[in-house]
Records
---
Amino acid sequence: MILRKLVLPLLLATALSACSDQGQQSAGTAQQKPASPVSVVVMKKTDRPITNVLPGRAVAFQTTEIRPRVNGAINEIAFKEGSEVKAGEVLYQIDDDTYAATVAQAQAALQKAQVSIPSAQANLTRYERLVNSGATQIEYENAKVTLLQAEADVEAAKAALNAAQIDLDFTKIRAPFDGVTTISTVSIGNIVTANQTTALTTLRNIDPIYIDLIDSSTNLLELRAAVASGRLHGDPRTADISLMLEDGTKYDRTGKLNMAELAVSETTGTYQIRAIFENPDHIILPGMYVRASVTVGTENGYLIPQRAGTRNARGELSAKFVTADNKVETRTFSTSKSSGNNWLVTDGVNDGDRLIVDGFQWIGDGAAVQPVEATVNDQGFVVEQPKVDEAKP
């Protein structure tokens, strides 16, 4: 019984001692946990392009609705709907029998008027010789008037013939410029009237093509201030413009600024910018929505990839950096600008600072990390730098 009383406390003390040793080992293990690896980019201040991404819509370079200028029945539709046509090419033929007859009548009237001129001229010449020897002054003046009347009749006949010829020419409805046609609204045999409300077809020139962009007046003021202060280098009027199409693909041609409206919408606070692009393959069609990236100039600063930055409730950019003792710290930037797939900042960063671009999602400020140098490619993917084998010469 006495032995039992002595053994029980001894076993309890041994168990407590074992638990204490295990707790100390666990604490030591936690303290020795390796630092989390993170990918970092070493910052360097350089001149970087400043870009604005703007929404836009494609608009035909030239557009016209084709309408008849004379009355008549459609005899021929000479184009294939939706096809390309050249300037001057016949699109529709209106029945021209009546107009051709009118031209013939006008030609006959002109010939009749022209015949009377030689006799009137000869009569005037004769009275000029006889005005002082038998012919009266009144007869001479009458002969002069007769000649003038004959000449006027000829001019009137020429004008009538010209008008008749114009109407005859208008029976052939031609394309005013190179372009692409739409569906025809009439068929052969339909009667059309001059300048009717309904267009026969619409012709669009889409090479080149316009892109109408919308920007805010706030951005315009900031851009002007940056240029005036010298922070932004380059002329926005010569900016290169690239396009992202509706399906996310990048258009393979670069456009140029064509014009900018000198007025701001009273309802939206925006103004319109028009860019022009070559479109030989007709990839861009009128009405398409696009996103345009406008390079307005260059500015000296540091690039923070979009994948490495977040924004707070005030819209300020923040990013995580590695300190000199390999600890995490968050920095917030009051101003930042878009530069391709990056943000550009000018304050709060120094050459050689290490920006965390991957692995920062689950670590907080003050956490110990193991930085691994990397780069961010044009697609926004992190590419770690190859490790150098120090053992090799």
---
Amino acid sequence: MTQRTLDGQSYPLPPGNLGLPILGETLSFLQDRNFANKRHKKYGSVFKTHLFGRPTVILMGPEANRFILSTHFDHFSWREGWPKMFRELLGRSLFLQDGEEHRRNRKLLMPAFHGPALNQYITTMEEIIDRYLNNWEKQGSIAWFFELKKMTFEIASILLIGSEPGELTDMLSQWFTELTSGLFTLPIALPGTTYSKALKARDRLLNHIEKVVQERQKHPTSDALGLLVQTRDEEGNSLSLEELKVQALLMLFAGHETTTSMLASFNMVLAQNRQIRARLNTEIENISPKGSITLEQLRQMTYLDQVLKEVERFYPPVAGGFRGVVKPCVFGGYYIPEGWQLLYRIDATHLDQRVYTNPEQFDPDRFSPERAENKKMEYSLVGFGGGSRICLGYTFAQMEMKIFAVHLLRHYDWELLPDQDLSFHPISTINSGSGLLVKFYRYN
């Protein structure tokens, strides 16, 4: 095993297989959902491979997360870590920025996702959610995953960039589906390929967003993009047109993809666990049985918090996170060279038996104050990241999911239809196999 030297000491490279020349093990990574699990069993919690044209180290466990997200944060780059497809399709947005550029822009975006802005979003969220619930009741049987994707995209597009419901929002949603299909595919831009369609969808979205930004600059609004257009840093500088376009694109992407995955998992779990649902119904009946919901009422729903945390753990909306290694380092006794790519595994961390009792069992009580299993080790629940770069829209997403849960559970019931694939597949985010087919109806 090749040895490397750091600070006067010699360390081996991680075990593993770099695969074929150029391609490495990329095709296996894209096609085999058990790719990482198989190699974890063979090599342990640190191993090397070759993905998307670069030698890659894959790590798992809370210690690895803490190493990457906290103690050795400056050794890794977001922009240099995510594959070419992410950089081309999502642009130089907050997601792919580092250092001072990221700190400055995160601070500028923060007001749109916290504090007073959240209160302004509640009524619109409730109106959209109620409309979708009524439509699903009329349809009777639905492919819920795809319906949820439409709903969360409409919420994101209306609240974040001020779109209106209708044909335009439907078209934007279709373009986003085409864009996200290109995030985990070979970046071959030949006509007719998935990646070529993704690039065209990106351009259409950016052209639309540019027009919206120019309108907001002339006529300020209270949606998130309107707030971004008006915000200034300490020196009085605002975001440029190009910055506003890519940040808005990121807001739309992050504002509905992970939320869709979480809500689909939540709904499936409640169909399979009636006792959990009964406890949620009791909590909602005691705190907010009818009418509009307040942030204070949502904060009081502690069991709903536990269930959502367990959904995040058991069905993490994103399976892992990429980083680029900008300084050589050592983890677990292995040398990780500068210029390599790193992938930390969220899904495997959430099944770590050192942290979670019977991790293969869905159990919201593991997050109760009495047990608080995620407090045993730092960075053991990282479905939305951790440390200084925890997901900026996490509070927005939590509020949306809780509002949806309350309105759903107050009046509606659903049953899973037989003979369907209930597995969830990690692509850009976790996607449902059959689309979560259900019979949906009102019970009071």
---
Amino acid sequence: MSNSLSHVHRLVPASGETARPPLLLLHGTGGDEADLLPLGDMVAPGAALLSPRGQVLENGMPRFFRRLAEGVFDEADVVARAGDLAAFVAEARAAYDLPAPVALGFSNGANIAGALLWLHPETLAGAVLLRAMMPLGTPPAADLRGKPVLILSGAADPIVPAENAERLASALRAAGANVDHRILPGGHGLGQADLTLARDWLAAL
């Protein structure tokens, strides 16, 4: 199952009679296709979980796109890798008979999810962006009217400046997305508040 498409991945089929959209789980730097499966199960019990591994290696650690330094992204690679990921999602939807997923991304995974929203908006039904930054300096015009997006930022995050996270939320709103941006106590790591807010937001979709 995990190697038959363009990205190494894991699929957990939906269970029960859930009508939840599937989750596209996008790990942070150094994660892999198993990394966010427990999180996905906690915040969307019963939903199908599609979890690809990033195809870029940084010092042996998987990522979804290259960066030039901490917080400085190779934007040409962001664009190329977002296209590859969108193609993978289309392959997986056909192979596994899935509707459009909601992305659940952490850090690097949240950033590639943001890039998907702008560059390939048809790929996602919505997104939960955990500790996300602007993936592109000047995002292209996109029609995100009504697209639900939850952004959860850490007030003391040493990696994502507060101004950057707010700029991300504002830019998505300007493109028409229905954005809920929450700033939580804590840093770049996730806490119980993240899980509770993500679970409640996903349940309300």
---
Amino acid sequence: MTAHIILASASPRRQELLGQIKVIYVVRPVDLDETFRPDEEPLNYVQRMAAEKSALGLANSAAFGLPVLAADTVVVLDNRVMGKPKDQHDALAMSRQLSGKTHQVYTAVSLRGRGHDQAVSITDVSFRHLAEREILAYWNSGEPAGKAGGYAIQGMGAVFVESIKGSFSGVMGLPLFETAELLSRQGIEFL
């Protein structure tokens, strides 16, 4: 089968979600500086990152002649971006901060092919109060490492989620409603 798009991400979750809607893709991850700029708002940051990833993906994959899809996801608590934990101390601190609170997950999707289209999903995620032993056990599971906000909603982290208002797939890293709209706008087949 011929690929429809290039996915500028190595994320297994994004690949799984694209597969869910039957998009045929080639994986060509990009590597760029994801430094948060001083005074940059979380929404601006996530949109910038997705746009820069798709632009770099298009530049790196011009020979393929396919549209490039990229995304970026951040966890935001009190208008502060919580990135991927650097170590155990950082992960435990994130879990403690999220405990008993509602935070937002912003996921921006950027598609470059016939022009540039972009969309953003913002989801409210409420965590129940977490016991210290749960926080430590979760870290010891290995799941929080490399995850925005130090948790994976599609994994064991789901037991911490009391409620969600918005896009589950957006929290996973690729909001399917918004992604499908972008693909449709550019005439890219799925399903």
